[in-house]
Structures are given as structure tokens and as C-alpha cells.
Amino acid sequence: MLASVFLIFVTAVVPWQTETVVRQSEEHFARGVALQQRNELQGAREAYEAALRLVPRRVDALSNLGVVHARLGQYEQAIKHYTQALAVDASQPAIRLNLGIAFFQIQRFDQARRELAQVVAAEPTNNQARLLHGLCLFQSGKSGEAITELETVYRAEPENVSAAYALASAYIDNKQLVKGEALIDRVFRSLGSAEAHLIMGAFNAANKNHKQAIEELTQAKQLNPKIPTVSSQLGTAYLWMGDRDRAMKEFQEELAVNPRDYVANLRLGWLYREDGRLDEAAVLLKRTLDLRPSEVGALFQLSQVFLAKGETQEAVSLLERVVKEAPDYSAAHVLLARLYYKLKRPQDAERERAIIERLNAEQQKKQPTAEEQKAKAQSVEPD
């Protein structure tokens, strides 16, 4: 569902070396390019490595070696070589784009986002980089910022179904459901593809029409059982319908094909915690935090895992992160106050109690009075 990814060869001026060494390095490099064009990737890798042994700071060889590793699925090695190339010459947006793509492929979205943002700044009309940047923002929980990027791409490429899908997903996540529905009607309603059913299922779920969401998502899964997020979204819909067992099964199926799905890790971790499967819950919740380090829901759930295991100090550390990220998270303040007393930290506990009292008072002010409730009821009574 992403735009096609094209990995780009980059040439560079070779630093001064002896004439013989440079010539030999050029020969190895030329052989690597020829082998790479014939898709003989192992041979190309060896040729580029030979060129680099003679002239270690060749940007072109470092970049192309990164491309070879990426095509072999060896993204960590690709990242290493792209980074080395940029250390020699940072003004190469094509290499930085490939670096961002490599980070994206292994779902290191924050790092991908940083690299892709630089590409977009250098090349504002590079819609591939902008689309991937928008997707990284979306995957990092920043759907509002993602919309800005994805709208730009979709305006420039209205025929780009990948951009339309990403934008519709961001609209739904950002609760801009009118825009989401309009885009779905315009692009997806008549397609009948797995992606079309998936996005319509997501839209129905956002509208709390969970029965219809399950129907659409089930059709998507029948058409393509491995389409990313389909089982995760089905699991969420079943959870809202009160079918806990089927929800758990769907989350497990999502993680079998997509181990770093954010929602499946978070929700299955929560369910495992409730079932007392604490070690399994901890693994999933830690993975959730690897994807989104500031996710307060995962931090709070993991704190309860540690608390259930008797690891009070670890629980406190996580709860302190929760209230730092979300100062009005009442449940975290309540738990912190109790744990501070347990740890013989009365001043910290009293500070938390004061915060709880303030939050409760603020909540009380937001509640309608008896007179306001009566007036509201009268205003909606039929004539």
C-alpha cells in the first residue's frame, strides 16, 4: 500500500589516492554496478566491498552497497552503509531517502521520520519522501501532522491510491470522519479490494458501528489474510462487542504476520495482564513502547504488570513517566500516591494527593448541576 520504492545509485568524486589504487577501485565499482544491474547481488556486494577496501570513503560505493543490502533484506547493514556515505557527504538527498526507507522497512518510524523530513525540506516536490514521512508521522501517533503531508501528496497525485488510503486512515484516526467518508466514497467504495474493505471497516469502527466494521474487515481478511492491521482492527471491534476470546485470537493472528503492530501489542498485552500472564504481557507492552515511547496507556499497563510481580520501584518509575506525559491522568496519580506511601515517601505521596484533589475538583466543576440537568431534559422532551 506504499508507493513503489526506487533505490537510487549515487555517484561521487573519489578522494585523492594513488593513480593505481583509484583505477583498481573504479574497476571493482564498475563490476559491482554491472552485477547489480543483472541482479547478481552477492557478487555486487563483494565488488563494492573490494572497491571500498582500496578507497574507503567512496560515497557511490557506500551508497550502492547499502542498496544491495536493502534488496537482500539486510536493512541494518543497509543503514550502516547509508550512514557512512552521509558522513562523507551529507548533501545527498537520494541516499538520505534510502536511509529513511530502510528505517521504515524495519518499523523504526521515529528515525525514518527524521531522515525523511530532511529529504522533504531539500526536495519539496519529492512526493515519495513526503508520503513516507506522512506514514511515519501516522505510525508515531501524530495523525494531525500526517494529514498535512498526506494532503499535499494526494493533491499532487489524486490517482495515487496509496496516498488516498494513508490520508483516509489519518482522517479516521484524527476523528475527521466527514473528510474520511468523502475520500472513501470517492476512491474506495466501488473498488471491492481488500484495502477498500479495510478502510471502510476502519471508518465504521470509528463511527462505533462495530457490527458493520466486523463485516467489512472480515471481507478484507478473506481477500487478503496478510494485509497489515486487518486482524488487529478485527480484534478491536470484537473487543468493543464484548467478545474477548475472538478479540484475543485476532490480535494473536496479527502478531503472527506483523509482530510490531502497535494496537495488537498494546491490546493483547492488556488482555494478558488481566489474565495474569504477566511475563507475556510485559513482552508485548515493552514492544509497544519501543514503537511509541511516550504512549501513556502502555506505560500505565506495564506499571501494573510490574506491580503485580511485586516490582514496586519499577512500577513507580513508569507511573512517573505517565504523569509527566499526561499530567491529568488521575488513575496514575492515585496509584502513585499509594505506592509512595508504601515506599516511605510521604512528601511525594502528599503531593500526589493534592493533585488528585485538584483534578477531582476540576471534574466536579465540569459536571452539570441538578438544575442544568433538568433544563436539558426539558429541552429535549417532545411537544
Mean pLDDT rating: 89
Q: Roughly what percent helix?
A: over 70%
Radius of gyration: 26 Å
Number of helices: 21
Proportion of strand residues: under 5%
Which residue ranges are poorly predicted, with pLDDT under 50 across at least 5 consecutive positions? 1-15, 376-383
| CATH homologous superfamily identity of the domain at 194-258 | Tetratricopeptide repeat domain
The top level CATH class name of the domain at 194-258: Mainly Alpha
CATH topology of the domain at 194-258: Serine Threonine Protein Phosphatase 5, Tetratricopeptide repeat
Shape: globular
Q: Report the span from N to C terminus.
A: 53 Å
- Based on secondary structure, the structural category is mainly alpha
- The multimeric state of the shown protein is single chain
CATH architecture of the domain at 194-258: Alpha Horseshoe
Reported for the largest beta sheet, the result is: none
Helix and strand element order: HHHHHHHHHHHHHHHHHHHHH
Quick gist of this model?
This protein is an all-alpha fold. It has helices at 19-37, 41-54, 59-71, 75-88, 93-105, 109-122, 127-139, 143-156, 161-173, 177-187, 194-206, 210-223, 230-240, 244-257, 262-274, 278-291, 296-308, 312-325, 330-342, 346-366, 370-379. Mean pLDDT is 89; it is low at 1-15 and 376-383.
Question: Would you kindly provide a written description of the structure presented here, covering whatever features stand out?
Answer:
The chain is mostly helical. It has a domain at 194-258: Serine Threonine Protein Phosphatase 5, Tetratricopeptide repeat. Helices cover 75% and strands 0% of the residues. The chain has 21 helices and no strands. It has helices at residues 19-37, 41-54, 59-71, 75-88, 93-105, 109-122, 127-139, 143-156, 161-173, 177-187, 194-206, 210-223, 230-240, 244-257, 262-274, 278-291, 296-308, 312-325, 330-342, 346-366, 370-379. The longest helix has 21 residues, at 346-366. The radius of gyration is 26 Å and the shape is globular. Mean pLDDT is 89; it is low at 1-15 and 376-383.
